[in-house]
Write a structure and sequence with these properties.
6-stranded mixed β-sheet, 8 helices, DNA-binding
Amino acid sequence: MPLRIATWNVNSIKSRLEAACAWIKSAAPDVLCLQEIKCETGAFPAQAFEDLGYNVAVHGQKSYNGVALLSKWPMDDIITALPGNEADAQARYIEGVVMANGAAVRVASIYLPNGNPADTEKYSYKLAWMARLKAHAQNLFQHEEALVLAGDYNVIPQPEDVHNPASWVDDALFKLETRSAFREIINLGFTEAFRAVDCSVKRYTFWDYQAGAWQKNNGLRIDHLLLSPEAAMRLIACEIDKSPRGAEKPSDHTPIWADLRT
DNA sequence: ATGTCGATACTTTATCGA
């Protein structure tokens, strides 16, 4: 059995608890990285996931942001902040080592800042956060271990990852500066799992709630799994599961998972 | 052109963030 690592921005775990439990039962991920849980750590519905056989690690925050790791396997070395800025109070990062049948895989659940509007301090915060992520990833690379940085990157890597690239050139998710910062992280030696196995276009992980974006397939591919070489050599599949986005009361994101050989 | 959600509070509608 491969090790399945998934990521899903649920846009409030309170609103999505039923959908999350249903998806977990159907996709049976070993690890699920959640973003935008939008609740404080103590308010996270851990019991519901423990009942499904998962260990739970949460870094929550009132109202906004918030990330979590669910793992069928024991987790160790949990860290709940991206190093590099002690003053940053936004809950956007949690990392842990999953002990899967004796083989350790380090997994992070990432909620990278949106950054819009791009002419404000929100965008400089995004770029600073990406620089911190790069620095931290560079440190993690020294371990030469299987490492998966998964989450909502709020980055459209390439024109083929958005329905209408021309209208997104000034957006914080697609600006050249954003894509360049993402590329800098990739260039440390990561493999972006989806593009490693699938070159098809019009493949998205997010569709805005507005303007019939889902019905028209006007989406964005902004949820990614970045694999260290030790993880990438084990990659056997990566798929976007669109079904939760088409269900009742959906998140605006849908899950994406990668299977690693064990 | 607009369109939608979810959380919050001096709440029952407006504001913010996405």
